[in-house]
Amino acid sequence: MVLNGSGAHKAAWVTILLLIGVYSVVRFVGLDKSPPGLYADEAVVAAEAIALVQTGYDSHHERELFTPMTAGGNVSAAHLYPKALWIALAGYSIPALRAYAGLEATLLLAGLFFLARSRLGTRAAVLVLLAGCLSPWIFQYSRMAVEDPMLSLCGLVWGLYFFLRSAAWADAIIAALCFSVAVYAYGSARVTLPLLFPLLLWVKQPDRKVTLRYLAAFAVTGVLLCAPLLIGTLRGTLLSRYAVVGIFFPAHLQGGGPLATVGEFLYNLRLHLAPDYLFISGDANFRHSTQFTGEFSWLDTFALIMGVALLGLTVVQSQRLPVNRFMVLCGAGFIIGIFPAALT
Predict the structure, then answer these.
(1) How far apart are CA 331 and CA 328, in angstroms?
(2) What is the pLDDT of residues 201-244, one digit of tens each?
């Protein structure tokens, strides 16, 4: 148990659990005051959800999996319909709309705990949960009712948890469902999840949890659920937003050619790995960062420093580099997670 140990250890764990409880409550406090008013994307999606509740149709008087937005891109059903159900019960106020984001963040944090516990044990899972509660970006997105959190909630936490949990075909189906919701919810998942899949198999393989039955259940479920998405992408109807911002889109390539665009992609990657961005001030856009710390919290930074120090000590003592497949997945996921932003 977490609280086993000496009095000092118990006091430390009580403090950690208290911090987790405080931050779990604070994310729901003052939702209409901080940040003040609705961000543009919040307002657009809220209007579509309200139209759906009041009329049964979106603002275009249609029922579609992807509702077009005036600035390009689409509002997906994975975000719009759950939000419509939520506001039908909670109301149309700003606090009610943002409480939905707080609920998503709470489910995300719960998923982080169960995922970490399944791979690292209970004590480590509590520390992961603490880091998640103190994370600047998770706190930021728990107070803004936009589409982004559904990607992390379904694809990068609960999807991973069920995919890695066992060889049962039921887990394969649930994992495919979670990943499918993620790729519907936010376009960047369509880049990150296919790149991560070989690593997921590599992490799962030593546990002898990769069977033909498992892969068949996963593949069939994923293809059936994502068929409309695949058709829309092949037809180009779901590429309107990328046509505006994508660096590999033909309109952008005319400005410098493929080699220059590859250089731009690498430059964008470097910007996301800059020390001031990660550790000091974060993103210049207040929507994406509190700017009180970097994208990493002080706790994240401390954990990274200690992790590197302990890894170095292990290498010196054992004369070899230990390989933890799950930690490799986490590190690779961090880098691959930057790709969608760097492609724009």
Answers:
(1) 5
(2) 999 988 777 889 999 999 999 999 999 888 887 777 777 777 77
CB-based contact 210:42 (threshold 8 Å): no
CA–CA dist 164, 118 (Å, integer): 9
| Among 212, 131, 143, 137, residue whose Cα is nearest residue 172 | 212
**CA-based max dimension of the chain:** 67
DSSP class of residue 292 equals S
Residue 71 pLDDT more than 60? no
Q: Give the pLDDT confidence of 259-275 residue by residue, as tens digits.
A: 888 899 999 999 999 99
Alpha helices in 91-147 (DSSP H): 94-120, 122-134, 136-141
Kindly report the pTM of this predicted structure. 0.89
Determine the 3-state secondary structure of 74 from DSSP.
strand
Please state, in angstroms and rounded to a whole number, the distance separating the CA atoms of residues 201 and 226: 20
- Please state, in angstroms and rounded to a whole number, the distance separating the CA atoms of residues 116 and 114: 5
Asked whether the beta carbons of 42 and 97 are under 8 A apart, the reply is yes
288, 149 Cβ separation under 8 angstroms:
no
- Residue keyed to tokens 């998923």: 111
What is each CA distance from 280 to 291, 293, 297, 309, in whole angstroms? Answer: 8, 5, 9, 21
User: What's the pLDDT band for 290 if we cut at 50, 70, 90?
Assistant: confident
